[in-house]
Model the fold of this input.
Amino acid sequence: MKTADFSPVKPGGHILPPLPYPYNALEPVIDAKTLEIHHNKHHKKYVEDLNKTELALVDARSKGDFTNIKCLENELAFNGSGHILHSIYWTIMTYPETGGSPGEITTNWLNWYFGSFDAFKAQFTAATIGVEGSGWGILGYNPAFFHLEILQAGKHQNLTQWGLIPILVCDVWEHAYYLKYQNLRNDYVDAWWKLVNWPEVEQRLINAYQGRLPILI
Done:
């Protein structure tokens, strides 16, 4: 997924984005070994499989042969969603306890829809810990409703809303935390809040609504 410009990515042209910090930067919350495996193996595999799927679809279109379309469309959704969410996940984390606090715009939106930051945090935490199996906790902007929403994403692509733009995401696939936290997902999620890069979240929110703010009561 490109972040530096707005030129379209050609079929099969996705690349693994580099981390904005060293592999040991998120310790002790996320250990270096977990981060390296997560980024350089899991995320890399999503990128590789996304590229293979897109190129397979190019080939299918050129031949007019769509006998394998069900499998290809499933792979497209799964790997594409995994690539997008991981690319966001890396950027909304930073060195522990250095990410500041929610910006003014983020705070206003959270207070308006969820009632308070604490109410938002409690719902996001519960939703993320409560993901059934593998998936994500997601705070996103829904341009159809002009408000923020918290969703659980099963795997990468299930249980989402059409058009939702992810703002803040927490990965709760076991490979994101199991080396350090084993089955204690709640301990991982509680510690993960120390990593949130709130200026990045603020900028993502601004980019998402593009100046179309609802009335904040």
Observations:
- The longest strand covers residues 135-142.
- The first helix runs from residue 32 to 63.
